[in-house]
Design brief:
With 154 residues, the protein is mainly α. It has a single domain, classed as AhpD-like, CATH 1.20.1290.10. The chain is 65% helix and 0% strand. Helix 2 runs antiparallel to helix 8, helix 3 packs parallel to helix 6 and helix 3 packs parallel to helix 8. The mean pLDDT is 94. One of its GO terms (molecular function) is peroxiredoxin activity. It comes from Micromonospora echinaurantiaca. Keywords: Oxidoreductase, Peroxidase. This is Alkylhydroperoxidase AhpD family core domain-containing protein.
């Protein structure tokens, strides 16, 4: 099935949006959380939301950040594989909870938050939360306007 975008990406149509998105990206990536960890968070939230364009770009960005194929293939099943550190598991759980807000009355439990806080300081946690929110923002833009993943891998 070929997906055709309804309109070009909305962020690209509004130049001020691109500036704001770039600032969010810079802020989230400036707090000392490893780039690969942020890419795993982006990839997992995008998988949950079914955003093909973001899954594609997330996997590519994670590879550029040094992620292995083995770990990328296992992100969707991170709980059942030995490939992730305790810190990565903590932020993947946080990313899932923050992405699935409507699934439970207390979407981000104290246990999920406390485990992430064991591995990251407040500034890093702020970056992770901002990055999850930004990823969900991207997912919603892309899903609403049916932005396709690239058809040609180069």
């Amino acid at each position: 099935m070929t997906v055709q975008a309804r309109i070009p990406n909305p962020a690209g149509l509004l130049p001020d949006a691109v500036k704001a998105i770039n600032l969010l990206y810079k802020a989230a990536h400036s707090a000392g959380v490893p780039a690969g960890t942020l890419e795993l968070v982006h990839l997992r939230a995008s998988q949950i939301n079914g955003c093909g364009a973001c899954v594609d770009s997330g996997a590519r960005s994670a590879r550029k950040a040094g992620e292995t194929e083995e770990r990328l293939f296992a992100v969707a099943a991170w709980r059942e594989t030995p490939y992730f550190t305790d810190a990565e598991r903590a932020v993947l759980a946080l990313a899932e909870a923050a992405t699935r807000l409507a699934d439970r009355a207390d979407p981000v439990s104290d246990e999920v938050w406390a485990e992430a806080a064991r591995h990251f300081d407040e500034k890093q946690l702020a970056a992770v939360v901002l990055w999850v929110a930004t990823t969900n923002f991207f997912n919603r833009l892309n899903a609403t306007t049916r932005q396709p993943a690239p058809q040609n891998w180069g």
